[in-house]
Every structure is written in C-alpha cells, then in structure tokens.
Amino acid sequence: MSIRLIINSDDYGRTADISRGIRDAHLRGLVTSTTAMMNMPTAAEDVKIAVNETPGLGLGVHLVLTAGKPLLASEKVRALTSPAGSFLSLGALIQNAASIDPAEAKAEWRAQIEKFIAAAGRKPTHLDSHHHSSYFTPGLFQSMLELAQEYDTAIRLPLAQAPAATLDGIPNSLAAPMQEAAPRLLAQFQPRSTNTFFATFYDKGATREELLRILDSLPESGTFEIMCHPGYVDEAFARESVYAWQRKTEFEILTDPQMRAEIEKRNIRLISFAQL
C-alpha cells in the first residue's frame, strides 16, 4: 500500500521570475513537476535552464489557447485569435467554444509541444492546459488525447476532486457535454494519468489548512496530483495579471519545512508524471 503524489506547478515560462520561483519551489520544497507555456517569450530558455539546473523536476507542456500569441501564423488559427493576432481572452474563448475548430487547436498545440522538445531535448512528461481550456469541449479534449497518444505522454485528468468528482475550472455553460464525454474519451484513449486530481489549492484556497486537508483525504494507496502556481512576481506582472501575489503565498507554503514533515509523516512518496 503506497501513496504517490505529484505536486505540479502550472505556468512555467509565464515569466522568467515565475520560472525561477518554480525551480526554487522544487529545489527547496514540494513541487515535483511543472508545465511550460511554450508561446511565452522566455519559455524556451527557461526550459533549457530547468533541464540543467533541476534535472529531477518533471517537465510537461501547459497547452495554451488564452494567453499571449499563437506560435502558428494567425491565418492558420483564425478561430482562436483576435483581429490583433493574439489568442482570444478566456471569456471570448468560452463564448465561442462551440465554433472552435479542434484541428486548429491541435495544430497549435503540436507546435507548442515541438518547441518544448526542441528546447528540452526530450518529450514532455505530460500535458495539461492553461485555464483548463483543453477540457472545454469534447473535440478539444479529444485533440489533447490524440497528441498525448502521439507523443506518448501522460495527461492531467479533466475531473477534479473538490471533494466529489467535478469539472472544476470548466465553465458551467460548457460542463454538460464534457460531463458525458470525458469518461468515454478516457476509456477510449486510456492515457497515463493519476487516480485523482485536486484543484482546490488555488487563490483563497491556497492555504496550509487546505493542503493538509487534501493530504488527509488521500486513500491508503494510489497516485494523485495537486495543482499549484508558485512563483516570484514583481509590480509589473501584478499589474497585468489577476493571479500575481497569490503565487508568493503558494511559494511560502510549498517551501515550508513543516509541510515536508507532514508529507513524510503520512508516508507519501513525491513523484512526477515521468514515473507513471
């Protein structure tokens, strides 16, 4: 009987400071895995640094549709971009989700994965997505699963434990089709993943108490993922992002030696997606 736990930090590559904070949260704390936003300016260099400085840190790809600009030319991803050539905002993507061509998203995501491989010199450990956008429609989720199969990578589960299995992070307006499709697609593709995904250690829920609650809720055996977003931020980033200073709070909790002691007391083994 054993408990294996992945603590995955999203948003690697969002800025160089966030990437540095994630690496430090691995070296000094509990973070075992991260996923990179490969369309961000510093992402490729940040991935190269991680390969050299944090070889034990699992490195995956944080598939992006709602931040920055696509890697492909905008005419190849017209349904995903604004007239200025940037990705649609989260709200606009949700509003237009039904008309999104999954083939465009798949092509862009493949470009993001290929950029990661070029920077890291290896395939990603797993795939997840910024703002959970790869789970917004059955077509998008199938495209993600096809890429995971093509590149032989694990994925983050679409269903979060909060505490019951829900489509946590997926807008209510999009949830019904995915509630039916997600189990069917998972059964069809059978990707490597965890038994359960926890998304509640976030924003106001990013507390020591919530992290301990999750740890205490784990069954006696199985493999689990906790999502997190630690990082270093500055005033400039705080002006452009609604999730800025919260990253500092997460960093402090995840690097607290007492939290390491709580993990060890519960005989929890920290792993990355590479070990699935």
Structural write-up:
With 276 residues, the chain is of the alpha/beta class. The chain has one domain (3-275): TIM Barrel (Alpha-Beta Barrel). The chain has helices spanning 16-27, 43-53, 90-95, 102-120, 138-151, 172-189, 208-217, 235-240, 245-254, 257-265; strands at 3-12, 33-36, 58-63, 126-129, 154-155, 160-161, 165-166, 196-198, 222-228, 268-270. Strands 1, 2, 3, 4, 5, 8, 9 and 10 form an 8-stranded parallel beta sheet that branches. It has a two-stranded antiparallel ribbon with strand order 6-7.
Describe the structure concisely:
With 276 residues, the chain is an alpha/beta fold. The chain has ten helices and ten strands.
Beta-strand proportion: 15-25%
CATH architecture grouping? Alpha-Beta Barrel
The global form is globular
Helix fraction, binned, reads 40-55%
Q: What is the count of β-strands?
A: 10
Domain unit count? 1
Based on the model shown, name its key terms.
276 residues, alpha/beta, TIM Barrel, 10 helices, 10 strands, 42% helix
What's the layout of helices and strands?
Blueprint lengths: L2 E10 L3 H12 L5 E4 L6 H11 L4 E6 L26 H6 L6 H19 L5 E4 L8 H14 L2 E2 L4 E2 L3 E2 L5 H18 L6 E3 L9 H10 L4 E7 L6 H6 L4 H10 L2 H9 L2 E3 L6
Parallel strand pairs: 1-2, 1-9, 1-10, 2-3, 3-4, 4-5, 8-9
Antiparallel strand pairs: 6-7
Helix pairs in contact: 1-2, 2-4, 4-5, 5-6
